[in-house]
Every structure is written in C-alpha cells, then in structure tokens.
Design a protein that fits this description.
Length: 132
C-alpha cells in the first residue's frame, strides 16, 4: 500500500483524527469538535488522498454517514482497547516528569484527551494488517 491512512476516532463531543504515511510516520494528528469532523476530514482527504478508516465505537454510524455524504468511502475498523494503547503512547510521547515519573505509567491518567492518539493507534493497526 502506498497511500496514507486517515484514521478517525469518533465521539459524541470530540473526535480524534490522524493521517499517517504508508510507512507509519505521523503526518498530522488533532482533536476536532464532532460538529467540525466532516470539514476537517474533507480538508485532510483533499490534501493527502488517503484511505479513510474509522473506529467502530461511539457514534461511528453517524460520523460515517456524514463523511460518506461528502462522497468519501469510510472503512470501519475494530477499536478494541485502543484507549489503553493510546494512553501508553501518550506517555511515550510525553514522558512523565517530577513525581509522576515514580508512578507506574499504567496508573497515570493523561492530563489531556487522547482521542488523537487513538486515531494514531487505529491507523498503525490498519497499516500493520495490510503488511501481513
């Protein structure tokens, strides 16, 4: 596969989105309001011509319909335990400092939403499945 992947973690109030190159490097990741999801995806899809995937959890049916109304194809993927993996990735990218570095990472709660990291995890899983 040589196309990038645009991954979406849909939610009621906010959605995580990320674009990863075919090799797995992160091109962009962000959290957007659910109301602005379609516009954000349309902008990124126009810029990157990606395969669009979306986690099959909360509000995925509605989000998928909004994106497909733009003429884009969306593939639903399993998002089982992606939040846990996203929290771990958050702490890899932002290592704990001070007293937090003494606490096991599994017990730490990130100080910011991790929806964008969930999108990265979804994209990486999808890319890994394509290689096999």
């Amino acid at each position: 596969m040589s196309r990038p992947v645009l991954a979406i973690d849909p939610g009621r109030e906010k959605c995580g989105i990320a674009v990863l190159a075919a090799g797995g490097s992160i091109l962009t990741q962000e959290i957007v309001a659910t109301a602005a999801l379609a516009d954000a995806v349309d902008t990124l899809a126009t810029a990157h011509d990606p395969i669009i995937i979306m986690g099959n959890g909360t509000t995925s049916t509605e989000a998928q319909a909004r994106i497909e109304a733009l003429g884009r194809t969306v593939t639903l993927v399993d998002e089982y335990r992606t939040t846990d993996a996203a929290k771990a990735l958050y702490w890899e990218v932002h290592p704990p400092r001070g007293w937090r570095r003494l606490v096991p990472r599994g017990m730490l709660v990130p100080p910011a939403p991790v929806d964008d990291f969930v999108a990265v995890i979804l994209a990486r899983r999808f890319l890994n499945e394509q290689i096999v």
